[in-house]
């Protein structure tokens, strides 16, 4: 490494004074470009983006706070015969309560959902369906198939809320 530095010094001293001055000015110019475009500008863009993100977050918090009175006025309890939440939330909550495993579900437009149940006990399915009916959901279609195991079924159904 020391030898390379000495070689560069010898080449520098071999240059005419005008070339040394021009090369020095060019080095200063390129160094300045590196500082501005390699260090300062990326840092400035990072801080500008962070400031903008923080301002957007502040605006979002202000909007949420402005909506708080409206949310507090809403009656989230409802009457006891109808559970609160979306159709999917109500169906899955009742399924969990009755130990029914829903394999797949598919929303079907406004207020309808199609469900597939692969393997469930009939003794668990019937109370679950009764619970859904008590929550004022209606069963649009239902197909129940018996499995080889005694008391086990698979079902496909469409519910509407």
Structural class: alpha+beta
Could you tell me how far the N terminus lies from the C terminus, measured between alpha carbons in angstroms?
Answer: 80 Å
Taking Cα atoms only, what radius of gyration do you get, to the nearest Å? Answer: 36 Å
Helix fraction? 55-70%
* Strand residues, percent: 15-25%
Number of helical segments with 4 or more residues: 4
Helix/strand order:
HHHEEHEE
Per the principal axes of the C-alpha atoms, what is the gross shape?
A: elongated
Average pLDDT number: 87
Which consecutive residue ranges, at least 5 long each, have pLDDT under 50? 77-82
Overall strand count:
4
Largest sheet: 4 strands, antiparallel
Strand order of the largest sheet: 1-2-4-3
Overview of the structural elements:
- The protein has 161 residues and is α+β, with helices and mostly antiparallel strands.
- The chain has four helices and four strands.
- It has helices at residues 2-14, 17-73, 87-97, 122-134; strands at residues 104-107, 112-121, 138-146, 152-160.
- Strands 1-2-4-3 form a four-stranded antiparallel sheet.
- Strand 3 and strand 4 (152-160) form a beta hairpin.
- The longest helix is centred in the N-terminal third of the chain and has 57 residues, at 17-73.
- It is elongated, with a radius of gyration of 36 Å.
């Amino acid at each position: 490494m020391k030898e390379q530095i000495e070689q560069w010094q010898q080449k520098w001293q071999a240059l005419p004074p005008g070339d040394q001055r021009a090369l020095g000015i060019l080095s200063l110019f390129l160094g300045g470009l590196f500082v501005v475009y390699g260090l300062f500008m990326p840092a400035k863009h990072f801080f500008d983006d962070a400031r903008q993100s923080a301002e957007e977050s502040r605006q979002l918090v202000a909007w949420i706070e402005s909506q708080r009175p409206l949310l507090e006025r809403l009656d989230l309890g409802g009457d006891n015969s109808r559970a609160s939440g979306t159709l999917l939330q109500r169906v899955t909550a009742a399924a969990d309560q009755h130990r029914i495993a829903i394999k797949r579900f598919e929303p079907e437009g406004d207020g309808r959902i199609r469900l597939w149940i692969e393997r469930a006990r009939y003794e668990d399915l019937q109370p679950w369906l009764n619970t859904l009916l008590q929550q004022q959901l209606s069963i649009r279609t239902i197909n129940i198939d018996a499995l080889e195991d005694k008391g086990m079924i698979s079902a496909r159904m469409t519910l509407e809320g």
